[in-house]
Amino acid sequence: MIIKGLSRIGVFFLYLLSLLPFWFLYLLSDVLYFVIYYLTGYRKKVVRENLRNSFPEKTDAERRAIERKFYSYLCDLMLETIKMLTISKKQVLKRMALQSAQTDIEINKIIATGRPIIGAVGHYGNWELAALRFSFYTDVERVIVYKPLRNETYEKLFKHMRQRFGATLVAMKDILRKLIELRGKQTFTMLVSDQTPIQESVQYFTEFLNQPTAVFMGVEKLAKSTNAVVVFCDVRCVKRGYYTFSFALLEDEPKNAEPHAITNKHVAYLENMIKLAPQYWLWSHRRWKFKPKAI
């Protein structure tokens, strides 16, 4: 009961924060960066180990520069995510703009075929804002796959945030059943592809950022089960608070694809994005908890 009461106070506080203008939130972000980076050192050991293993060719100074940029962006991301609770459609469209008109034409051609589409996205840039922008991208049934939170109060809050512009939120464990239910409708399903699978379900390791990595197979399994076209949601940060997005075609014949081919494609696509601007990936995530010999 006490935890529930504290959670409700927390939700009220988050709503108040979300009403603040972006410029003020970025002032708070600058203060938060100083606290997190210099005072608390939040997950600094994890971040440094991840950067060192991912970029052994870089100098300590170069990795430290990426580290500082990452923490600065992480603070922006936290406050931008809170802003998603009350952001307007106009602001979403303004701050997450379409990257390429040609790519839009190509994806709309796929949509016009009536086939289902699976979209992979990484923990890169503001993926939460990209999910809101996805709600306005097409009129077909939009499904977002997510991992439910343990705290019931915050689960309701973030579920509301992600669904407020019309997308349907479905837990990962329920997604195949949901897509079967929607088989009579065309669906465009988005899911995060770089999350760490639970140890019991690890089936495949591939090379990612210079090290063997346990890979989430959900994108490939869903694509093969539903014969869906697979695309990658490419999110880029243009400047503070402003992004572009596009969808890149990865596979249009999933049932004919070799085992792990689809997985390797979305892993490679994300890796290339990270190498171009590494500060926008979630380096504080314990991505390499499992090694091949431990499975």
Automatic annotation (TrEMBL):
Its subcellular locations are:
Cell inner membrane
- Keyword match Transferase: yes
Q: Which InterPro entries match?
A: LipA_acyltrans
Specify whether Cytoplasm is a keyword of the entry: no
Q: Which residues form a coiled coil?
A: none
One GO molecular-function annotation for this sequence? Answer: acyltransferase activity
**TM annotation in the entry:** 12-39
The alphabetized UniProt keywords are: Acyltransferase, Cell inner membrane, Cell membrane, Membrane, Transferase, Transmembrane, Transmembrane helix
This chain belongs to which protein, by name?
KDO2-lipid IV(A) lauroyltransferase
Domain of life, per lineage: Bacteria
Question: What's in the GO CC field?
Answer: plasma membrane
**GO biological process annotations for this chain's record?**
glycolipid biosynthetic process
What are the leading ranks of the lineage?
Bacteria, Pseudomonadati, Bacteroidota, Sphingobacteriia, Sphingobacteriales
